[in-house]
Amino acid sequence: MAAQPPRLVHAVDNALTNAYTVSKLPALPDRIRSDSNLELQGEIACGFGYALALTHTHAIVWPYTSTSQSPETFAFNLPSSSRHGEPLPVGCLVSPSAAASEPGLLVVMAGSGKIVYWESISSAATFAFIKKERTGVESVISGMPHGEKVDAITNAESAGFVLTFNTGRLAYLNVRDAHGRPSISVQFLRSALAPSGSGFFGSIRHAFSNLSIRGDVAAVRADRSNRVGERNIVALGSKGKIQAWKIHRGGHNEPLGDIDMRDQIVSALYESDPKSEDYSADSFEALDLVFVPKGLEPKYLQLSKLSDAMALDDSDVQHLLLLVSLSNNHSARYALVEVILTATEGHTGMVRPLTSYSTPISHADVARPTKPRLYLPRPAIVAFVVFDRAAVIASVAMQPESPEAQLQSDSHILPSSFEDVVDFREDNAHEVLGSGFEELPPAYATEENRNQRHKTKNPAAMLLVRGAGVIRLVTTDIDKFGSEKPPTVTAKSKMEQAVFFGVKQENPLIFDARQEVSFSNQELCEAALEVSREVLGSTTTFIATLPAHLEENLRARANALERLMDYLRTTKAKLNRATRWQLLFNAEKMHVAALLWKRQEAFTAERSADDKKSVIGYTVEFINEKHKHQPRPALGEVDPVRHWFINDIDRMDLFVAWTYEVIKVLYQGSMLSDQQFAVMLFEAMQVLTCSHSMATSFRQHNLAFYGLSGEELDNGILVRGYEGLREPWTGTSFAANSARRLAELAASWSESQLRKGRSDADSIAKPIDQKLLRKIVGALPDVTDSMLTAVHEFAHFAESSGRADHRLQGQEFASTYDKDKYERPRLLAHVFDLWEAAADLTKKHRSMKGLASIFLDHIVHLEAVLSEDGAGDAEKQRVQAVIEKKKTEIGANMARFGHKFAFPLYDYLIEEHGAGAVLDFELDTAGLRSQYLRSKNELSKITWINDVQQDKDAAHAYQTLFRVALAAEQQVWNKKVELSLARLALLADAEAEAAKPDSLIVQTDAKRRAEDIQMIKEERVAVQMQEMLYEQILPSTANAIDDAAALNFAMEVHGSNIPRKQKVLRKVFEHGLESLLQHDVVDPMTLIDLLTLFTPNPDLDDEEYADPFWMALQVAESSCPGDVANDAKRLIWRRLLVRDDWAKLNNTNLKNDEEVTASFMGTALYSCLYQCIAKHDAREPFHPPRPQDVLGVFTEQLDSRFAKFGADDQAKLREAMKQEDKLLTTAIEKHRLPEWFRTVFDGATTQVQNYIDDQTAAGALIQDGAA
Questions:
Q1: Residue ranges of the Nucleoporin Nup133/Nup155-like N-terminal domain (predicted)?
Q2: Quick one: CA torsion of 211, 215, 219, 220, rounded to 10 degrees?
């Protein structure tokens, strides 16, 4: 009989996709609902609209389509069993008799063979209630040997019923006699296909026992024809043996075929499904079969992938669909195989692998209540496969035409089509106990079909599930499976099932992803983001868009996002980093939205009836229409605030930023009274702090949950690694800038109100509510914190951008952050007396200078309070206690943070109170002051004082003073003093070492000190030479009225040796001269330039001053290193040699010896050589260079001073050097300079020796006179 499906109402959806719906029906008998451990099995008789459950003692029947949770139930007592452990009875509902409207019931006790038949469930139940006893017709199967059990009963009405035994035997059962009266008869089936034996000639049992290697009987099914009084029966062996015969009412039967299909089926599996080759052919098992339905509409014949045998109407051809498997210990490969069976042969057709389910069947579980069942409801487009804890829905529809599909068809491979699996919870409380199916009516319905009470539009599988009741798995639109765009299983649909149905209470389904169903990482990422966005925007069909209670709606959506991530974690989805961060950002927005809605409720509750529009309402109104969904009043959307929270949470960043725009407009436009504006400002501040602080807090607490535990956060924002991420919504440029402006406005407005309150104390104007003003002031630290966090976050993001303009903007924000984290907390402390909150802010944002300054200023502030008149003793004690506390905190922070705190503290002391405050600071007990001073070269002038006073470290004081004198000092007098102090410190260090009782003077230390003293001596040479030169130049500036005039006078007198055309060299000379006149330290090479280029003052007596060229040589010797000193000396000698007119000196014509001698003794060369010889160490003879040896110096490569000069200036300087070379070369080649050089040198040597002799003689006379 064709099954007619019922219409289901008031079912609870447990899963919903674009292909199918899973619903739990409400109707379930109380005795089953109350005892989930009750041992039973059953079936769903969809054609009758009833479900049947069989326990050891009762048969329970109820209308499963009832809308009542406790439906009308028919319960029947069953014959008691005399044997313990007997299997559950088998049974089925029977078509109603002509005199009844309700079906009958047939039950067979599996172990004893007792049979009970009730002609009508309703009348039988009523009579049994009155008589208190069974009222059905009873009988017993005779001839059952010990151990034989009834496994199953197959309804083959109107021909009868077929019983299947665990021994492989089959029996025909009839419930009416020849006159149509209730009567039970049983006869074992006989067949001519096998030889007779053992009293059962040709029984089906012998057919299977002769092929014992082929396994047990897997299933016996009857065809679905409408022929009255006869049915075709097919028995399937577990190893692929198929037998078919036709039975008639009364038990007569005739064979229709007997084929072993195992090898054909295995070959077809291997050919069409490459993955089947991973399994051994020996593991093949046939599990179930169904007859392919007949009488289909022509369009469905075209849509189905099954063969043309669907259109045959030949009762001798058995068109079957088998459920088979190949397996190993860990997995199984299931498939649907089409088989066409005739009397003489069988062949396979379509092979449809099942790819979504691979759990193997455990044959060790003898208590398993159900075997796998296969259903192919009319119109044969979708098949259902029911396992013990899962159900598979698989399309067998023809796929849209494509080249790939054509290739697969030519290879006998079914193209990929829709398939999905519905899993029940893997516990003892949920397992499939029975099943059935619903289907469309045949195209040409008989009178019997038309009289069926239930109809459906789409095929379904009905499942009786322990702990859940009746579950309906129904396709949503069967025609879509054969359309151009058939439904597909997507990563998104899987996520939606888990997110929106996995949380439902008492949902028997689980939605953890099966390993058989896999998606690419890209698909998973895109699907997760799409589901998340749809939740944010309420575009998903699974959440209502018109909630009566918005708070619950927001909570539900937040929970959905949490479940989404939980599902992705459970399924170990490999999401990329950008996706994880975006999912987290979306969850933050939803979390903040829920909190903001609570604030909105509080805002409106606190407002008066005529002023309910809060800052949130204004903000929603102000947001540009391009950035929000506009309400449609024509559709009843008249609440813009709720509309925004339902549709636009994804733009939470804009909402928070626009809050400031609202305040700005209202403030600048004077649209509100002071009190109203104060309320609005306070609300805006709460919106800002709620959104930022709650978002960053949520981010920190959920980082690991979103798979980002390896990320480094600072105050809730990502420190690095923004590459590839979208702009964080809490730190967009717009949001950060708006937060900063709101913080500024709130602070300035509050400050003005405080000043106004103090100045207008006697005013009659209505003041701002002081309690509200205190709240606003109290909220300023949180607003400042949110602002700083937003600015810092955008700076991090923008600085890592690939765009130059973004990086520049990021640098500007980073600079703003560094500035604000110092200044903003100080403002809170000084203006609003929020010292503690300000200190906490600086700690949080690690502004150590800000923290130090707040501590120090707070102490100064408190000390000022102590000095005020009128302060009582108690108040003074309290303030003093706070001062001591602050000092303790400073010491604690120095100990905790070390130089990170101490150095900024000393910076602030110097800025505000000068260097002396650093030396006077008494709270440093860790030596951090010394570290600070020694790290700052610019503070070296006071570092040596600390070295001496605090550290008693004369050696370091020497090093400091010497370093300052050499590298940092600008004033020559200071340098002279510093060198002197350095020498004293060095001597003091030596004396201290020598004074130690256990001191061992190490020769290397003594040598080092001697070398250091020599270095100081050498450095003092340059200072001395500079002072001596200054004394020569100073008289020329006596009449100058200012520095500029002094420089001009000096250039006129002393710059005549430099040709005016050599402007660059004059410029160098003038710059050096200016430094000399200003007492700046002149570098050695510049000092050498001054000494070798300047013209002596003719009004001064040369004998009072040292020779300038000799002075230059002293500078080169003492202050120029290595090769620089050699080149400097060559430069000095060259300029010395070209200073005199050698052409004139060489012309001795008409001159006597005295005149010639007087001429060379008046040269600059003689003067320099005389001083060189006279002041040279007599123990080492003086060897001046030859004139030709000083040629070429600095003509190609200038000294390092001019490295930054332009190319033209450098060229001109080299030209000046070459000009000197040219003059010297001329003197050498044409005026016999080398010979004159020797002559002058000898004359100077003789003169020095004569002077020494005279001094020696004079000394002897003095000694003789004294004697």
A1: 16-472
A2: 20
DSSP single-letter state for residue 670 = T
Between β-strands 90-94 and 74-77, what pairing exists: parallel, antiparallel or unpaired?
unpaired
Please answer whether residues 1174 and 1166 qualify as being in contact, where contact means their C-beta atoms are separated by less than 8 angstroms. no
The pLDDT assigned to 705 comes to 96
Could you tell me which residues come within 8 angstroms of residue 82 by beta carbon, excluding any fewer than 6 positions away?
Answer: 112
**How far does Cα 167 stand from its chain's mean position?**
63
**What is d(CA 232, CA 230) in angstroms, rounded to the nearest whole number?**
7
Asked if the model's pLDDT at residue 204 lies above 50, the reply is: no
- The span from the CA of 1051 to the CA of 225, in Å, is 129
> Please, which pLDDT band fits residue 836 given cuts at 50, 70 and 90?
very high
Picking from 108, 176, 175, the residue whose alpha carbon sits closest to that of residue 144 is 108
CB 370 within 8 A of CB 386: yes
Q: How confident is the model at residue 196 (pLDDT cuts 50, 70, 90)?
A: very low
Query: Amino acid identity, residue 588?
Result: E
pLDDT at position 208 over 50: no
Cα torsion for 118, 124, 130, 131, to the nearest 10°? -10
pLDDT, tens only, 965-998: 566 556 667 666 666 666 676 666 666 666 666 5
Token look-up 């389904």 returns: 509
The reported pLDDT for the residue numbered 979 is: 66
Q: Which helix (H) or strand (E) holds 289?
A: strand 285-291
| Joined tokens for residue 749 | 């407005």
Q: Angle at the Cα of 532 (from 531 to 534), degrees rounded to 5?
A: 65
Predicted confidence at residue 954, as pLDDT, reads: 63
Phi, psi of 929 (to 5 degrees): -60, -45
Terminal alpha carbon distance of the chain: 162
Nearest to 5 by CA among 49, 43, 42: 49
- Helix/strand/coil (H/E/C) assignment for every residue in 79-98: CCCCCCCCCCCEEEEECCCC
Q: Would you call 730 exposed, middle or buried from its count of C-beta atoms within 10 A (0-12, 13-18, 19+)?
A: buried
H helices present in 669-732, as ranges: 674-702
- Nearest to 684, CA basis, from 824, 609, 787, 834: 787
| Partners of 21 in the β-ladder | 16, 474
Which residues touch 1073 (CB under 8 Å, ≥6 apart)? 1033, 1047, 1050, 1051, 1054, 1055, 1090, 1094
Residue 1234, amino acid: P
Q: What average pLDDT does the structure give for the chain?
A: 85
Confidence label for 407 from pLDDT (cuts 50, 70 and 90): low
Q: Is 22 helix (H, G, I), strand (E, B) or coil?
A: strand
Beta bridge partners of residue 54, listed in sequence order: 41, 59
Residue at 149: amino acid letter: K
What six digits make up the tokens of 1059? 């040709």
How confident is the model over 351-372, as pLDDT tens digits?
Answer: 999 999 999 987 655 444 468 9
Q: How far is CA 1215 from CA 649, 769, 1086, 1129, in A?
A: 75, 82, 18, 19
The reported pTM is: 0.76
Rounded-to-integer distance, Cα 963 and Cα 980, Å: 13
Question: Looking at residue 1175, what is its pLDDT?
Answer: 84
Name residues whose C-beta falls within 8 Å of residue 1154's C-beta, 6 or more positions apart in sequence.
none
Contacts of 630 (CB under 8 A, 6+ apart): none
The answer, yes or no, to whether residue 446 has pLDDT greater than 70, is: no
Provide mean pLDDT across the span 297-315.
88
Would you say residue 251 has pLDDT above 80? yes
Bridge partners of 318? 341
- Pinpoint the alpha helices (H) of 868-969: 873-897, 899-913, 915-920, 928-935, 940-949, 954-963
> Residue 310: is its pLDDT beyond 70?
yes
Going along 1106-1228, which residue ranges are E strands?
none
Question: What does the pLDDT average to over 1052-1068?
Answer: 87
Interatomic CA distance for residues 317 and 1071, integer angstroms: 118
